[in-house]
Amino acid sequence: MYYVPATLQYLLFDVTAICAGIWTNMIAFVCGFGLVNFFAKQMKMYSFTLAILNLIGKIPYFHALLWSRRSQLKFTFVVTLLLSVSMFISRDWIVVKHKTINLRNFTGEGNRLTLAVISDLHAGASVYKEQVDKVVEKVLENPVDGILIVGDMVDAPVAEIEERVKPILQLPQHAPTFFVTGNHEYYYGDAREWIQMYTNGKIKVLKNENTMLKGVCLAGVNDISSTKSGISRHNMDLKSATEGCPKDVSQIVMSHNPASVREFFVDHPKELADVDLIISGHTHAGQFYVVIPVVYWLLPYFYGLYEIPFGGKLMITAGSLYQGPPMKMLGMSEVWILELVGV
After folding, report:
1. Among 191, 198, 253, 277, which has the highest number of CB atoms less than 10 A from its own CB?
2. CA 23, 24, 26, 30 torsion-angle sign
3. Which range of residues forms the domain containing residue 17?
4. Is 312 helix (H, G, I), strand (E, B) or coil?
5. 54 and 145 part of one domain
6. Name one GO molecular function term (predicted).
């Protein structure tokens, strides 16, 4: 493929990515019906469980799904098609969601702070400039005090996809814009090249650092995986990130992976006790409907607003775009407008 024009390479990548998404949906039902077939046979061996099967079997369609391989195949193909088409259509349908979060002893100017939160754009792969533009346009439609980009902006080196990411550089003209790294920043080339590009574009990159924003201390940590990046003295450090925040001032922390809360609790409990709100992404809320049960079971935090140790809160976005297959659950490519107010 080295000598094939880039346009054809991108086309072939998109086709294979779509196939991977279809396979993800299909394999869930294949495995599900495999389990149904296995347990149904076992249940026929006992009178009590057989009675349950017979009760379910009184509903004609359920009876077919239990015992007819043809019906199972039809169900798998039809539902896979419906899910895949709907998720492909909704992949870059950007939804603006509003949420008010009450914080203890809030010190924001006028007792209110409005933040736009985006995350997990994954520019590169099957995410193009057009999709990034849509996210930026949604943010620009909303008056905010600050814009937070919570990691996983890219899935390729600067040299390959710089043009796809450039729409993001419009954001600092709208409101002060801040960025922290996610795990995908470290997968392609040198993350410092992206950091330099954002800095040149007036985006404040918080590398275990903090800054004041309208009466609150906004801190940002490097991604939980950054210690493996090969970059010297580049890790996740809540203590350094919040060091210097004025006393009795509300603290908001940007941390891409919500699992970082567990490490904060173990390594920096004193600092975590002073944090009022952590804003994260990373989970995509599963991205696929069929993946939700596994992701929900495996991850300590999944999606939405949580209470965390010492009285703070954790807000997790499902991300603004998608990773890998160009598919996402309906209404889950999101831009959050958070209204922070005092209790």
Report:
1. 253
2. positive
3. 6-89
4. coil
5. no
6. hydrolase activity
